[in-house]
Each structure stands twice: as structure tokens, then as C-alpha cells.
């Protein structure tokens, strides 16, 4: 890695052939004993869109953090436009023309678009002059790339898709010629995703190089030119997108064949198990979060709730699980009527036969500092056989945990390992195992496969279908449309705290659902949807 | 940007690092001792002999240790519930008031066999009640527990001065002390040892130390073996998950504070019926505050708290001897040394961690253990 070798390398580049925009050679990075990146080499052509896919923990984000200067590699070299680059911090990366759009936006919500874009590059102490220049530059960029955002809008009030555009504008304003996008579509509706892809195409035609990190194969197929597959910190394959398919990529990611289509048995619903009538909720500021929610889930049925995240689904689950007190309406479950006057807390809901796999497992589903066998009884810790009078029976807890780990393939099989030390997928399997072990009559499931790798997704989905067939009523909330469509027998669409549409699972299509999710569907599926518009 | 914290094996994490921190504190203290012209090695020798060198020294050291165990456990149990109880001092004071009032009211009418358990219960009840009020204010009114417990220390101190000067003062006495209790003294350890033929000079060490040991076992069993301890720890580590699990967080906050206060209140047992046999002012002497350092250093685990209490007992007793033996080292100098120990093992607890991490990954002999840890992660 001496400067001399860098000179030699750049002179060795054949005349006339443009060097790759980004070239990584033998990048190595360890966190203590964890080898996050191992001998990673890749080369990204100028003006192309390249995807990097891999399961969670495959090392994609670490690799991009190295390129963006958030981490320093233990070994290997980074070349930008054929020249050796030393990137020690994000400032170096920005100077070298690399921009990054993070999964969680780095924007100041109370600032305007213009202020956000100019933040950190104000050009002098007099803000006015710098802002005038920034405004002209923003207009040019908006014109050139179709990135239209009102420069004077307050960022916090913009839809998520627009906020993402502000992030892209920020990177371009700083002169980025290479743009890294980390899971950019996680928060977008299908329509917003399409718009993002148009923007990426526009960037590409004007010579910007785009790197897309994702685990969604559909997006890779839709927009990229080439794709790298990562597994266990290594690059395992490079493919031209035109020459590969979803099945092959999925197999490369996981290292074995994966069934992408679930085999679902026919749908034979029984009696209503969960009836929700007129449920409403206001947040602490008095804003309506849920309004007049009505639906029924029958035994042996999976009802899916689709919606862009933040439209009341999380709050609905929390109300049904007893975490948030019911403020309006009633819930009939397990032969009991729950009203604001006779509420039920999470412990009471469990005794009524309601299991709950929470959306946010770190926040609700487990206590990271507890060992696995303590997490495996969370919520059931006052029940037999775990509790004997005033004491917990640790032998029974450990046996219980070991048998859950065995049945649900939780790895490693160590009941006394701290919950936080399991990977996301294994944590989720442990939580699912805990809730299913009590054979609930009603199961509330939020984002069952969020942050879970493909192999575990398949397993979790099969478990959900199996308990549906055994007569459990399941309410499934997910922002992954694919997941809702493949699992649910009926799909309810939520927008702005209301249910705006209902579609049978087998006839649902992405476009209709996407339009309903943004409340722009002209055909009204339910009478109360008319009141909305 | 620093990477995620690397896992270290337990013996380094809870054994070597705290030891290194204490040694570091002593090293810096040694430099200061050197700077004022005394011999640090001589100072260490005087401290150790003064704290552990003869039976009476050990008696005093263990007497201080008893108080530190009570207040350390009190702070620790609140820590486990995610609460920072700074009010151990006031709770110990009011616990002592409970002991004093019980004995003053009943020592003429009830035999000691009943009186002593009643006094112990009163210590727990008064301490618990004094801590439960800030707990209630935190749980139901959102007043920050750190602020309210500090304030309650002042209120407790003012209340005690008022009671001692105006109400409980012995008739005809010039100093604010109650009359001496007729019965209800806890036996001194030197008396008990004397009865079995082991002669030892008088020290304040009394039967309370067995109570402290019992409390360690009970606190451990409560936290790690009962469903309530499980709920309390769940609340402390992840309040949302505790709610998900059906815990009523408000009730649990009040319960945790009450238990914390009861433990701190036991200092009153040690002081009032163990040593002074009357109610006096300022018998808490800062034990409540040292309890915070003890809990921090002992990682809020009873075993760690016993070890940390012993260390602080040694510093307390040995420090007093040191101030007596070497004239240039004043009482304040001893406080500086204690302060350094608290600084290095509390506030700077992770100062030496990166060095151990580097050393750990550099020594190949330790690697296989590291690989096993990684597989677990």
C-alpha cells in the first residue's frame, strides 16, 4: 500500500479504458473476534447501478461504512477512479465524491429543505449569501434529475419519500459522483419506490454511480446493472442482472435452495375469535391515531394489515395487546368484552388467550440483558410450571427454553446465553416460540420477519400457516407487502389511522394495495373510506 | 467512531478490570502522598495494619463494612429497577428514627426478645416509607427520583434536628441526645467472643453484621429467584418489555424504592441499637452516599457489594489510623484517597478497558476462548 505502488497501478490501467468508479481490493475488517468483512474485492463501473445483496449480518453495511469512512478497514485498499484513496472519516469520503443516504435519515426535522441541504457547507459566516447560492444549485439539480422538492418546506412535514429526496439532494449538493443508498425502500410505498427508481435512472444517465444495498431481490432485478452477493462477510458471487434471476440470487444469498412461494392450504375459517368495534385512540398531543376501527378475525384465518409504516398499525397492535389502554370502542375476545370502562392489561390479555409477537422485538419482545431462558418466559413468568409459589423454578425454565430452541432451531442452543447475544433471526424465533408454546387462540404478529434472514423467514412463515391451520386466529401487521400478500387470507389496508380498504388475499395485487395505502384508490372498498376523502 | 464493545471473558471483566482500577487509584493516591513528602509504601503499610493488623482493627473495619453492605444493597436494588436512589443517607437516618422511637416507647414494657425484632421491623418500615414517597412521586407524578431523593435527605436531616432538639432530647441534657435505652441492645461481637474465651478489646462491631450477610442472600434470592425480582429487573433493563410482560411499572417503582429504603434503614439498627444505644444526631455519617460507590464498584451484585464494602471498610478504618500515625496526612487526605477509589472504579470504570481489550486480542493463548465467545454471539 505504498504511494509508489499506487502510481504504478494507475499507470498500468490500459489507455482508453475508463477505470472503475470504485474499486475495493481485499478489504478486511474485524470487530474483536467477529470477521465482518473478509478479503472483499469489488469493482463498480462508472455510471452504473450496482446492487449489493446479502442476508442481515452478511457484512454489506460494514463494507459501505468503510467506503464512507465511518469505519477504517484493517487491511486492503480503496481506489476511486483508479487512484488509491485514504478514507479515514466521512469528510474524506465526501471530498472524494462519495455520498451516502442512510436507512435512517440524517435530517434536522425543524429545518427547511434548503437549510438541511446547506448544513455544514454554508460558504461563509453570512448565511444569506450562501443560501442564495444553494437555492440556485438546488433548482439546477431539481431540473436536471427530476428531484423536485420545495426548498422552503419544513423537512419534518414532508412525506418520507420527499425526505429521502432531500438526502439525495444533500449528497449531490456536496458534489457526490458516487451515491450509496442503504436499504432505501424500507420506508417507501410501491409508488414512491418506483419514483425513486426513476430518479436513480436519471442519475445514471448523467454519469452518477449508484450503489444500492438491499435484501429485496425484486428491486435488484428492477433497477441494477450488476449485483454482488455477500454471505458471511465475503463476496460469493458477481452477476450481470440481465443474466440472473430471483431464484438464483436467493440461493446464493442463503447458500441453499429457498422456496419463494409459500404453499398455503385452503382457507376454512371458524367462529369469530377477535371482534374489534369502533376502536379509537388519540396520542398525548390529542392527535387522532386510530379512528373507528372495525374488523373481525375468525379462528383459522390470517388477517393481514397492510399500510405504510406510521399509519396506526403499531398503535392498533399495542391497543389489542393491552399495552396501550383502550380509549374508545370495544374489543370482544375470549368471551370477554373489553371497553374503556373495563380495560385489560397485557397480563389479562394473555389469560384471554392472546399471544403477541411484537413489532419491535428489542423494545417489547425481550430484555437484552436477560439470558435466553428468562426471555423464554417473559409475560408467562407468573404461570405454572415456571412459578412455584414465591420462586422461579430455574430447572424447568431451562428445560422449557431448551425444548423451544430445539423445536424452533434457535442457535446457539444455550439457554444461559444473554438474549442480546443472539442474532436477530434467532431472537425472533425464540420470541415466536415463546408465544406459540402457550397455544394462543388469537395471535397478534407485528413484522414477524423484520431483520430476519431468508432462511428464517421461510421457517417463520410456515409456522404461522401451521397454527392458522390448527385454528388460531392471526392478525398480521407488516410493511412488507410481499409478506402480507403471501400469508393473509384477507387484507385490510390502513391509512391515517383508519381502515380504508379490504381485499381478499388471493386476489390482491400490489398496485391496488399501494394505491390504497396512499389513499389514492378511486374504487371504494368500504363505505367508511368515502368519509375520508 | 469507535467500534462496538468487544466481549471479554468474565474473569477479566468482573475480576481483573475492577482490581486494576483500584490499583490505579492507589497509584495516583501514592503520587499525592509522595508529593506532600510522606512515604507511600509506609502509608499503605499503616493503612493495612490499621485496618486488618489486630482484632480490634478488624472489628472496626467490619463494623463499617456492615453499614456499607446495607447502603450498597439499597442502591443496588434500585439500580436493578433502573432507579438512582441517592437518598440512602436520609432513609438510613429515618430508619434509625424508627428504631429509636420503638425502643424509647416500649423498652419499659416489652422483653428484648420481642423488642429487637420490632425495632428491626420499624427500621425497615420507616426507611421504606421515606423512600416510597419519592418512588410514588416518580411513578405517578414524573418527578425525577434523583432530585426528590436528594431533597429527602435534607428533609430527613432537618426533621431529625427538630426532633432531637425539641422532642426527643433527654430531660436535663445539654446535647441533643435521647435518653439511653434500658434494654434492646444488640450484643457486641467482642462480648460474645469474650464469653467463649476469646479476649478482644471493645469495638462497635455487633450482631448486625449477621443481618447484613442475611440481607445479601435475601437480596440475591429476591432478584434472581423470585417472579417479583424478575419483573423488577425487566423494568430496569427494558421498561417497555416489562409493560409488554404485564408488569405494572408504577407499582414496581414504588416497591423497588420501598425495598431500597428498607435496606438503607437497617443502618439505623446497626447504629442505634447496635452501637450508641440512644438516638443521636448524624449517626449516618455519609454511609448512604458511600453506598452509591459500593454498588457501582460491586456491579450491583451482592458478592461484589460485600467485596466493595470490605474495601471501603478498610479505607475508612485504615484511613483513620493513617491520619493518626502520619501527621502530614490529614483526615482530608484520607478522603482524597477514598475519592480517587470512587473516581477510578465508578466514573472511570471503563478507563482501563481498552487496554485489556488490546492485550486480550494480542495474546494468542487467549484466542480460543475468544472464538468460543464469538460463536455464542
**Radius of gyration of chain B, Cα only, in angstroms?**
22 Å
Mean pLDDT of chain A: 85
How many individual domains of chain A? 2
Shape of chain A: globular
- Give the termini distance of chain B in whole angstroms: 22 Å
Summing up helix and strand content along with how strands pair, one would put the structural category of chain B as: mainly alpha
Report the span from N to C terminus of chain A: 63 Å
How would you sum up the global shape of chain B? globular
Summarize it:
The complex is a heterodimer of chains A (533) and B (377). With 533 residues, chain A is of the alpha/beta class. In chain A, 35% of the residues lie in helices and 25% in strands.
Write up what this structure looks like.
The complex is a heterodimer of chains A (533) and B (377). With 533 residues, chain A is of the alpha/beta class. Chain A has 19 helices and 22 strands. In chain A, strands 6-7-8-3-9-10 form a 6-stranded mixed β-sheet, with helices on both faces. Chain A has a 6-stranded mixed β-sheet with strand order 16-19-20-13-21-22, with helices on both faces. Chain A has a 4-stranded antiparallel β-sheet with strand order 2-1-4-5. In chain A, strand 7, helix 7 (190-205) and strand 8 form a beta-alpha-beta unit. The N and C termini of chain A lie far apart (63 Å). By secondary structure, chain B is mainly α. Chain B has a domain at 67-296. Chain B contains 16 helices and no strands. In chain B, helix 3 (55-80) runs parallel beside helix 8, helix 3 (55-80) packs antiparallel against helix 11 and helix 3 packs across helix 13. The two termini of chain B are 22 Å apart. Mean pLDDT of chain B is 90; it is low at 1-5 and 367-377. Classes of the chains: A alpha/beta (533), B mainly alpha (377). At the A-B interface, helix 11, helix 12 and strand 18 of A face helix 9, helix 10 and helix 16 of B.
Amino acid at each position: 500500500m505504498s504511494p509508489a505502488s499506487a502510481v504504478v497501478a494507475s499507470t498500468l490501467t490500459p489507455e482508453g479504458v475508463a477505470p472503475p468508479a470504485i474499486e475495493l481490493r481485499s478489504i478486511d475488517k474485524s470487530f474483536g473476534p467477529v470477521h465482518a468483512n473478509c478479503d472483499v474485492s469489488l469493482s463498480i463501473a462508472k455510471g452504473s447501478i450496482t446492487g449489493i445483496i446479502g442476508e442481515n449480518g452478511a457484512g454489506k453495511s460494514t463494507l459501505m461504512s468503510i467506503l464512507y469512512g465511518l469505519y477504517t478497514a484493517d487491511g486492503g485498499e480503496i481506489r476511486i477512479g483508479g487512484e488509491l484513496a485514504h478514507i479515514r472519516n466521512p469528510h474524506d469520503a465526501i471530498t472524494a465524491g462519495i455520498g451516502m443516504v442512510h436507512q435512517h435519515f440524517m435530517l434536522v426535522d425543524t429545518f427547511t429543505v434548503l437549510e438541511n441541504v446547506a448544513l455544514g457547507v454554508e460558504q461563509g459566516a453570512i448565511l444569506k449569501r450562501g443560501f442564495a447560492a444553494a437555492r440556485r444549485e438546488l433548482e439546477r439539480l431539481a431540473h436536471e434529475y427530476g428531484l423536485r422538492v420545495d426548498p422552503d418546506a419544513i423537512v419534518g412535514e414532508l412525506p418520507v419519500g420527499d425526505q429521502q429526496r432531500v438526502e439525495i439532494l444533500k449528497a449531490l449538493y456536496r458534489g457526490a459522483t458516487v451515491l450509496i443508498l442503504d436499504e432505501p425502500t424500507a420506508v417507501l410505498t410501491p409508488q414512491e419506490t418506483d419514483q425513486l427508481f426513476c430518479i436513480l435512472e436519471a442519475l445514471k444517465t448523467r454519469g452518477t454511480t449508484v450503489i444500492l444495498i438491499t435484501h429485496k431481490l425484486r428491486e435488484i432485478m428492477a433497477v441494477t446493472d450488476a449485483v454482488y452477493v455477500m454471505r458471511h462477510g465475503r463476496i460469493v458471487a458477481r452477476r450481470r442482472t440481465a443474466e440472473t434471476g430471483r431464484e438464483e440470487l436467493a440461493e446464493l444469498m442463503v447458500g441453499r435452495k429457498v422456496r419463494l412461494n409459500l404453499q398455503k392450504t385452503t382457507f376454512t375459517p371458524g367462529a369469530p375469535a377477535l371482534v374489534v368495534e369502533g376502536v379509537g385512540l388519540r396520542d398525548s398531543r390529542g392527535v387522532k391515531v386510530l379512528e373507528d376501527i372495525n374488523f373481525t378475525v375468525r379462528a383459522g384465518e390470517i388477517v393481514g394489515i397492510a399500510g405504510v409504516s406510521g399509519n396506526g398499525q403499531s398503535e392498533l397492535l399495542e391497543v389489542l395487546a393491552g399495552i396501550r389502554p383502550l380509549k374508545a370502542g370495544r374489543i370482544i375476545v375470549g368471551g370477554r368484552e373489553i371497553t374503556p370502562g373495563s380495560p385489560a392489561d397485557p397480563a389479562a390479555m394473555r389469560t384471554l388467550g392472546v399471544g403477541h409477537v411484537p413489532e419491535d422485538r428489542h423494545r417489547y419482545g425481550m430484555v437484552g440483558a436477560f439470558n435466553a431462558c428468562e426471555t423464554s418466559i417473559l409475560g408467562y413468568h407468573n404461570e405454572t410450571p415456571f412459578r412455584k409459589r414465591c420462586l422461579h423454578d430455574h430447572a424447568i425454565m431451562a428445560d422449557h427454553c431448551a425444548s423451544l430452541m430445539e423445536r424452533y432451531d434457535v442457535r446457539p442452543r444455550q439457554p444461559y446465553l444473554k438474549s442480546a447475544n443472539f442474532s436477530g433471526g434467532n431472537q425472533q424465533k425464540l420470541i415466536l416460540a415463546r408465544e406459540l408454546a402457550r397455544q394462543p387462540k388469537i395471535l397478534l404478529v407485528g413484522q414477524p420477519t423484520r431483520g430476519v434472514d431468508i432462511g428464517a423467514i421461510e421457517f417463520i412463515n410456515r409456522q404461522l400457516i401451521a397454527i392458522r391451520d390448527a385454528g388460531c386466529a392471526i392478525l398480521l401487521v407488516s410493511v412488507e407487502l410481499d409478506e402480507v400478500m403471501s400469508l393473509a387470507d384477507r387484507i385490510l389496508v390502513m391509512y391515517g389511522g383508519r381502515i380504508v380498504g379490504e381485499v381478499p388475499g388471493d386476489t390482491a395485487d400490489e398496485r391496488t394495495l399501494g394505491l390504497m395505502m396512499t389513499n389514492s384508490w378511486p374504487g371504494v372498498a368500504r363505505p367508511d373510506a368515502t368519509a375520508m376523502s | 467512531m469507535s467500534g462496538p464493545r468487544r466481549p471479554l471473558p468474565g474473569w477479566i471483566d468482573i475480576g481483573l478490570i475492577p482490581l486494576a482500577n483500584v490499583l490505579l487509584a492507589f497509584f495516583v493516591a501514592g503520587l499525592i502522598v509522595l508529593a506532600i513528602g510522606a512515604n507511600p509504601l509506609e502509608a499503605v503499610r499503616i493503612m493495612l495494619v490499621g485496618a486488618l493488623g489486630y482484632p480490634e482493627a478488624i472489628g472496626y473495619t467490619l463494623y463499617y463494612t456492615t453499614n456499607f453492605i446495607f447502603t450498597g444493597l439499597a442502591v443496588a436494588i434500585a439500580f436493578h429497577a433502573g432507579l438512582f436512589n441517592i437518598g440512602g443517607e436520609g432513609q438510613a437516618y429515618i430508619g434509625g428514627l424508627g428504631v429509636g422511637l420503638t425502643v424509647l416507647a416500649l423498652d419499659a414494657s416489652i422483653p428484648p426478645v420481642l423488642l429487637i425484632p420490632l425495632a428491626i421491623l420499624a427500621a425497615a418500615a420507616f426507611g421504606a416509607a421515606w423512600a416510597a414517597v419519592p418512588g410514588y412521586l416518580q411513578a405517578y407524578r414524573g418527578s425525577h427520583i434523583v432530585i426528590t431523593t436528594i431533597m429527602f435527605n435534607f428533609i430527613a436531616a432537618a426533621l431529625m434536628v427538630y426532633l432531637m432538639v425539641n422532642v426527643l432530647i433527654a430531660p436535663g441534657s445539654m446535647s441533643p441526645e435521647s435518653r439511653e435505652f434500658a434494654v434492646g441492645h444488640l450484643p457486641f461481637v467482642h462480648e460474645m467472643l469474650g464469653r467463649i474465651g476469646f479476649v478482644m478489646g471493645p469495638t462497635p462491631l455487633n450482631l448486625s453484621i449477621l443481618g447484613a450477610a442475611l440481607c445479601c442472600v435475601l437480596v440475591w434470592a429476591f432478584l434472581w429467584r423470585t417472579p417479583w425480582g424478575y419483573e423488577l429487573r425487566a423494568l430496569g433493563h427494558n421498561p417497555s418489555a416489562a409493560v409488554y410482560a404485564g408488569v405494572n411499572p408504577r407499582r414496581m417503582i414504588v416497591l423497588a424504592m420501598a425495598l431500597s429504603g428498607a435496606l438503607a434503614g437497617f443502618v439505623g439498627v446497626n447504629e442505634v441499637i447496635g452501637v450508641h444505644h440512644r438516638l443521636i444526631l448524624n449517626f449516618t455519617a455519609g454511609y448512604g452516599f458511600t453506598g452509591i460507590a459500593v454498588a457501582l464498584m460491586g456491579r450491583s451484585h451482592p458478592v461484589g457489594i460485600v467485596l466493595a464494602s470490605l474495601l471501603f471498610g478498610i479505607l475508612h478504618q485504615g484511613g483513620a489510623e493513617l491520619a493518626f500515625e502520619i501527621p502530614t496526612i490529614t483526615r482530608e487526605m484520607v478522603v482524597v484517597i477514598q475519592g480517587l477509589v470512587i473516581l477510578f472504579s465508578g466514573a472511570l470504570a471503563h478507563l482501563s478497558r481498552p487496554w485489556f481489550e488490546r492485550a486480550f486480542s494480542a495474546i494468542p493463548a487467549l484466542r480460543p476462548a475468544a472464538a468460543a465467545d464469538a460463536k455464542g454471539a
